[in-house]
């Protein structure tokens, strides 16, 4: 659009709304001046400011995918109880900030009954009583074009199974579960206590007709991170070296004529024992403990069972405050595989090009002495 | 019989269901149409349900990628999708996503939120993600021709909502709730994140780099936005001086907490001691690694020190191609009040270097591996610091700079004869 | 930073290429034997003028003419 055509309201590069304009006045007033917090019951965090002001942050789990009509209902509730303000957390939970303690019960009842979102997802570190928080996840079959698994359906099945740990605080430590529907990991799930990652196990198939109709050959070949795709110029199509392919789906992104789906072979790997917090133990990548489970919609029973047995092996045996990686480092991997009832196989021994040797000596957290 | 027998099994169980959300949208969308509201994507929520049911039956996705961006002046923030079942579900044949830059820290007024929802009721499927993995508001599903008018309606709102990042650009930066709600915040995560977002609007909207670049801001080492695992530039709040102790509050905790067992024994460096008689704790701050465990345990009694700032970790990324990495220490400490300026200075240097020599789809972390940490530290003008490593290198294969070498008479004479000790120029192979 | 300049002829060459396929800046520069920074500037200017546009893989970005992109997307959508 040319300059002269732009209407008076036209603008670009204006960025997000300024956060302080969308913040409850009591938060603005006490900004940077919070004294301490305590979790007074599952899902309710009391935060006390130096000024003596107190707020009650009430947390609810959501399915991440939300209807605009549900958001309007959440707005109605925020108008009624919280002067028209609410916020979301980094793990798909929604939070209402109350200044009146006596309204907590009514608020929870209203959200649970009208919207159907459960109150919980908190942990009380001082008392060593931890709740499970929401699973962060990606789009899956709802909107992704390269998924090996669905996302929302699996998350729903797992959270139904682990629901009691979300609404209560009866775990020994923090447990972050995350899911990415393919190894491109829009969700960056590689540093979680338990992560589920969709994996393809077969290279893309080249549909020559579709490739000719829809695709740019050189761009598609160039998009392959392992140089496994060659242009067959004469035949005006592409060729895949199955030995070199990592099943990332970049070629399918560039060229819809190269689907890499194999419904019977796509599935999920399960990883565990990663973390990002520096508390006690520095950050750590998750490790693969189940190489593959099949897609079993709509409820993924095998996957749910494996996740649950990993989760329970930790929940039943970890010491107070111990996260998955600390727990496993204490008991050893052999004991962990026994406790979780998992089978160890050759797939779990790393034979991929490992990160450069030098990286092993770099610090990845913020645990410094000064 | 139901059209979606597989999806109908999903609302089973207590956890909130995405299927219920889509069904609700479908019903309300029909109602809105019947009421004569202007709805540009009628029937799309129902069609989405139909397509997902087919995916559940086929055990595969039915989306194809589209490269459309289609918002005047911008090169990112829209993710194109086409259904490969266009004959069965024409309502979602085009089903593009718009990423909307969320308010920093995900704080909303209902006024702002309702307006945005009204826009999406008109122009899209009525389905959203709160939020996408990077933090944006995800508006899920509209047609190519509605992208521009939808954005124009967003810019007319009060407050207006802008589009987020995608492609080879600066992705929408995100931050933890920081000083708005948390006593642990060692710097103003929200303000720094907002300022960076505003400073680099051009980089966010007009992709021109080899690949994506992400900033994430956490106020303390607990890292509630998982910056360390996924941001090319993770800014993690920390402090340098002594942990602040309120011994009266320690005594309160001592009433019911086993401080010896749960605080002292779990300190990773044994830097805490507890006097059970006086009910006081002592911290050897020279041996404290500022991991947050004791502060998490006794938030009322212990606080981060007063000399606050942030550590910058560089290079985190997901597995493709060289494997996943957690960001490593690039700058051990920047004082809080210098943070914004120093980050800008550093980011601009990194971007220039990376844009110049980075390969297509090479994240900054991978470029540093390829070129070496020495070159990287030179680029950002950072002195080496022992806090960057777990231990020094175990091999002696070091390269010394010209100025570090001693002038040697022997070599000088040989060189004068025309004998070279470095006989060819190494050239980087281009891929 | 010094102002990057180019000739109208260079701009035309870039524009012609952009009408043939989607490009990465680096490849365009290589094929046209031009400096990458100059090509980047030309492409950004062409976008500003509405003569070039973005094509995105979601994770990475390419450039072509709006005419080419429209046609390319139509083919992709219809399968």
Quick recap:
With 370 residues, chain A is of the alpha+beta class.
Describe the overall structure:
The complex is a heterotrimer of chains A (370), B (431) and C (79). Chain A is of the alpha+beta class and 370 residues long. Chain A has 10 helices and 14 strands. Chain A has helices at 25-29, 68-81, 104-115, 152-166, 208-214, 217-222, 250-254, 301-317, 324-331, 333-340; strands spanning 34-41, 44-49, 54-61, 65-67, 85-88, 93-98, 123-124, 129-130, 177-180, 194-199, 229-232, 237-240, 267-272, 287-294. Chain B is of the alpha+beta class and 431 residues long. Chain B has 15 helices and 15 strands. Chain B has helices spanning 5-8, 18-34, 44-58, 110-123, 144-155, 189-199, 201-205, 227-230, 247-254, 259-264, 293-297, 339-357, 364-371, 373-380, 409-416; strands at 63-66, 78-83, 96-100, 107-109, 127-130, 137-142, 174-175, 215-218, 233-239, 244-245, 272-275, 280-283, 302-303, 308-314, 328-335. In chain B, the strands form 4 sheets. Chain B has a 5-stranded antiparallel sheet with strand order 1-2-3-6-5. In chain B, a hairpin with a 4-residue loop joins strand 11 (272-275) and strand 12 (280-283). The mean pLDDT of chain B is 94. Chain C is mainly alpha-helical. Chain C has helices at 8-18, 25-32, 36-48, 66-78, and strands spanning 53-56, 61-64. In chain C, helix 1 packs across helix 3. The model of chain C has no long low-confidence stretch (mean pLDDT 93). The A-C interface holds A 1-2, 184, 210, 213-214, 216, 218-219, 222-223, 250, 253-254, 256 and C 21-22, 24, 27, 50, 57-59, 62, 72, 75-76, 79. Strand 4 of chain A pairs antiparallel with strand 5 of chain B.
